[in-house]
Specification:
Length: 167
């Protein structure tokens, strides 16, 4: 877990206690919509004076993005992608809230809902994905909305966008 903090605070719990505001949890993957969700969460956290908990969920299975790689390699790849995405999201910003990066193994919706259990809200993206993945797993954003104990903000992809994932 990495903590980025441009202002010198020491993390999620201290920030929440100081400001009376719980962190915002945001699910991050390679999609453009997820990058927009992270940007939205950072903006909202800046307004609320709270931290952002950026979460990437990975798993090994027939519909996983990382097929046939050792678990540790998958986790390292996910950590690097998340860190790169966070760096891109904060580039050029003058006011950046503390950002905690977490890479969790599990089912995306369940892991995100669990990560947001003590948060002020959960931010997720919705985007078109592979038909097989949707048929087997369902929509992550829909599952989060149905099962989360905190408010869920769903960020949609830009209208007219034909590119759904970053390389």
């Amino acid at each position: 877990m990495n903590v980025l903090n441009e202002r010198g605070g020491s993390g999620v719990n201290e920030m929440a206690e100081r400001n009376g505001e719980l962190p915002i949890v945001v699910g991050v993957d390679d999609s453009d919509a997820a990058h927009r969700a992270l940007a939205w969460a950072i903006e909202e956290a800046t307004i609320r004076h709270c931290s952002v908990h950026a979460v990437t969920v990975w798993s090994v299975g027939p519909v996983a993005d990382f097929a046939w790689a050792p678990d540790n390699d998958i986790k390292l790849i996910a950590e690097k992608k998340l860190s790169s995405t966070v760096r891109d999201a904060i580039a050029g910003r003058t006011n950046v809230p503390p950002i905690v990066e977490s890479v969790i193994e599990g089912t995306p919706a369940k892991a995100l809902v669990a990560a947001a259990h003590d948060a002020s809200m959960l931010v997720v993206a919705t985007h078109s994905g592979e038909k097989l993945r949707k048929a087997l797993l369902g929509s992550v954003s829909s599952e989060c909305v149905r099962h989360s104990s905190v408010p869920v903000v769903v960020i949609r992809p830009e209208t007219g966008s034909t590119h759904h994932a970053r390389s």
